[in-house]
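Methods — Computational structure assignment.
A single polypeptide chain was analysed. Its primary sequence is given first, followed by the predicted tertiary structure written as structure tokens.
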Amino acid sequence: MKCVIIIDHTLPLGLIANTSAVLAMSIGHKVKGIVGEDVVDQDGTIHRGITQVSIPVLKGDEALIRSIRTRLVKMEGDHLYCVDFCDVAQKSRNYDQYKSHLRQTSANALNYLGLAIYGPDKEVSSLTGHLGLLR
């Protein structure tokens, strides 16, 4: 299985970091087994489980993210999972406000800041293999 995050490279650094964090948390919450078990070091200190898969952060822009998301909506199922992060989410102060604003916004009016995709290597690569790393 493969996991990638695509971020709009034109965003300020703080929004890039925030978008990546939100997407990673959302994937970690929904994808069973992606986070490993806690590990105890030699001194007996517990280190909480982290992701068991590498998560490359890829460079995109709003139009590219929208295009990939549109393709994903048609492909998504039990084998492919995606999470998007849009301007409505970024501007909302809490989840209730996000839900309320999103329900009142057309999908075409959303500006996508980032997208996380988890699924079989071949399918994820077919969507993202041409993208470079965000540096």
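Note: Residues 13-30 form the longest helix (18 residues).
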